[in-house]
């Protein structure tokens, strides 16, 4: 949605008090639209901010004209300061990742009964077929023509 536009596109990334907010201006109207707002983001300290672009097999031109970085001064309680120093890996509270669905609810009694019943019927059916095939094989093996 930002390709081949006749105007510049802008992106604001803001991280304040464990809230990561991304806003975009891709219409050229200088009006910010919310893109994503994630509370509970805990980022470690001491890392660097970098930009890059990877397009795979496409030959595209990605120009980053400028970066404006600000360090905001936010008052923190001593507990918040202690919690933020203990972060070693980036973590998001209450984030559901793809492939991590909620655990399945247990089966009802009727469903469990039907599964067991039809499993037993199938086992009995397989045993009966096996006995019939074995008896036919026994009859065939007793017949000898000398």
Automatic annotation (TrEMBL):
The chain crosses the membrane at residues 110-134. GO terms for biological process: endoplasmic reticulum to Golgi vesicle-mediated transport. Its main location: membrane. This is LMA2L protein. Keywords: Membrane, Signal, Transmembrane, Transmembrane helix. GO terms for cellular component: COPII-coated ER to Golgi transport vesicle; endoplasmic reticulum membrane; endoplasmic reticulum-Golgi intermediate compartment; Golgi membrane. It is a single-pass type I membrane protein. Residues 1-72 form the L-type lectin-like domain. One of its GO terms (molecular function) is D-mannose binding. Gene3D superfamilies: 2.60.120.200. It holds the Pfam family Lectin_leg-like. It is found in: Membrane.
